[in-house]
TrEMBL record:
<keyword id="KW-0560">Oxidoreductase</keyword>
<protein>
    <submittedName>
        <fullName>Antibiotic biosynthesis monooxygenase</fullName>
    </submittedName>
</protein>
<dbReference type="InterPro" id="IPR007138">
    <property type="entry name" value="ABM_dom"/>
</dbReference>
<dbReference type="Pfam" id="PF03992">
    <property type="entry name" value="ABM"/>
</dbReference>
<dbReference type="InterPro" id="IPR011008">
    <property type="entry name" value="Dimeric_a/b-barrel"/>
</dbReference>
<keyword id="KW-0503">Monooxygenase</keyword>
<feature type="domain" description="ABM">
    <location>
        <begin position="2"/>
        <end position="90"/>
    </location>
</feature>
<dbReference type="GO" id="GO:0004497">
    <property type="term" value="F:monooxygenase activity"/>
</dbReference>
<dbReference type="InterPro" id="IPR050404">
    <property type="entry name" value="Heme-degrading_MO"/>
</dbReference>
Amino acid sequence: MFIVHSTFRVPKEKANEVIEIYRNRSKLVDQAQGFRQFRLLQNSKKLGELTVQIEWDSKQDYLRWIRSEQFKQIHELEKNYPDQELANIIPEVHQYEVVAQ
């Protein structure tokens, strides 16, 4: 299994707005080959810190996804988000191979 975390920070007063965006996400990734699970995590002490966690069957499945047209579509929509402060956020991405369970 392969897990990707994309962590980003927003002003804490905008955290609920961002959470709502993710609750209403397109779910295109859910249809990708090798997709297992999506989660949006909120830091319990720093409410403006959010992490998207996506689980994949393999690193190859993840790489296939980020090279796909659907991935490009989703990220183009983000660039056009009306709130430019949110649209310009660049996440810190970490990739993990599950080595024990």
